[in-house]
Design goal:
The chain has 253 residues and is α/β, with parallel strands linked by helices. It is 47% helix and 15% strand. It has eight helices and seven strands. α1 packs parallel to α2, α1 packs across α8 and α3 packs parallel to α4. The radius of gyration is 17 Å and the shape is globular. The chain starts with 7 loop residues before the first strand and ends in a 7-residue tail after the last strand.
């Protein structure tokens, strides 16, 4: 297992799902963690789980759409722990997967881009300032296989996740000689509340999703979190600008 002993990490969207799993995994690997989310109850629940297992964590209320809140999140992390070694920018929304592009509303596009693109932009600016000041750091951005390939009836989400991959690669080049590493992970269908909601709305989706993946099953949040921790750790010291597919073989088709 990759180690984060003595390191400090923050995770956005850490109240549930992949974000929570990543925060727990980072704490288990030895990191002190800032658990950030717009959902106070869920975020505090993640903190309790970390504290109950002997880890160190605190909660920061953060709406990533608001630049001042992302700056406050980083400032709070520095005040609490004195540094920032790793940031996992996981906060994101799916929008609607019900319409082709010409049928989709502009409001849905605006909502998805406000979180998945502008929110990521805000987070990275605040995180990079802190990491540049100390001369080291690793950022992992949560993309999707929809950042590598197309997805039907998901033009807004797919555009936002392609943007995540593009920002990751460009920023990785900007800061490669400054001691900072920036990567992305690109999960396929993963057993989280987002996918569970899709299945609840249409029970056929469970089988459809599983059939789409060559391994024949959905991923788990813990599997994604393990890759996140590795990319945050010194074990991935020569990895930057990479978009890692965690997809059971989906993009190999």
């Amino acid at each position: 297992m990759a180690e984060m002993i003595g390191k400090v990490a923050l995770v956005t969207g850490a109240a549930h799902g992949i974000g929570r799993a990543s925060a727990l995994a980072l704490a288990q690997a030895g990191a002190a963690v800032c658990v950030a989310d717009i959902d106070s109850a869920g975020g505090e629940g993640t903190v309790r789980q970390i504290l109950d297992t002997g880890g160190r964590a605190f909660f920061a209320l953060c709406d990533v759409r608001q630049a001042e809140q992302t700056r406050a999140m980083v400032v709070a992390t520095l005040a609490e722990y004195g540094r920032l070694d790793a940031a996992v920018n996981n906060a994101g929304i799916a929008g609607s997967f019900e319409h082709r592009l010409h049928e989709a509303g502009d409001e849905m596009l605006d909502a998805v881009l406000a979180v998945n693109l502008r929110g990521l932009w805000h987070c990275m600016k605040a995180e990079l300032d802190a990491m540049l000041a100390q001369g080291s750091g690793a950022i992992v951005n949560m993309a999707s296989v929809a950042g590598l390939i197309g997805a039907p009836k998901a033009a807004a989400y797919t555009a936002s996740k392609h943007a995540v991959v593009g920002i990751t690669k460009s920023a990785a080049l900007d800061y490669a000689r400054a001691g900072l590493r920036i990567n992305a992970v690109c999960p396929a269908y993963t057993d989280t509340r987002m996918v569970q909601a899709a299945v609840a709305a249409d029970p056929r989706m469970a089988a459809i999703m599983a059939r789409a993946i060559p391994m024949g099953r959905l991923g788990t949040a813990d599997e994604i979190a393990a890759a996140v921790v590795w990319l945050c750790s010194d074990a991935a010291s020569f990895v930057t600008g990479h978009a890692l597919a965690l997809d059971g073989g989906l993009v190999a088709i």
